[in-house]
Amino acid sequence: EGGSFSSGDAAEKKSQGPKGGGSSVKVRHILCEKQSRALEALEKLKAGMRFSEVASQYSEDKARQGGDLGWMARGSMVGPFQEAAFALPVSSMDKPVYTDPPVKTKFGYHIIMVEGRK
């Protein structure tokens, strides 16, 4: 993965599926059971608080620190979460691009950001 993007490589990746392509994404999320709490978390993000800090304060999912879910393969996520994750551009914690409004699944409300795609 030395960052060499030959044209053949890019075309191959594009044909793997709907917009965005790729077969897995490196995801962070903030999961709140209540919509009001998720919206509160969004306000914190908009005020410039780091995604990982908001996640550790607001997310119900304490499994991983900072909301980091790591690499997740297409097909391993619940429908709405997956759609949102693959539609997001890759962004960094310094300039995160996240789902606004939060995405509703059977688990609650997720604010999702994507840190990588492959």
From TrEMBL:
InterPro entries: PIN4, PPIase_dom_sf, PPIase_PpiC. Signal peptide: none annotated. It is found in: Cytoplasm, Cytoskeleton, Spindle; Nucleus, Nucleolus. Residues 22-116 form the PpiC domain. The keyword Lipid biosynthesis does not apply. Its EC number is 5.2.1.8. GO terms for cellular component: nucleolus; nucleus; spindle. The lineage of its organism: Eukaryota, Metazoa, Chordata, Craniata, Vertebrata. One of its GO terms (biological process) is rRNA processing. Keywords: Cytoplasm, Cytoskeleton, DNA-binding, Isomerase, Nucleus, Rotamase. It holds the Pfam family Rotamase_3. Its main location: cytoplasm. It is an enzyme of class 5 (isomerase). Belongs to the PpiC/parvulin rotamase family. PIN4 subfamily. It comes from the Eukaryota. This is Peptidyl-prolyl cis-trans isomerase. Residues 1-26 are annotated as: Disordered. GO terms for molecular function: DNA binding; peptidyl-prolyl cis-trans isomerase activity. Gene3D superfamilies: 3.10.50.40. It comes from Anolis carolinensis (Green anole).
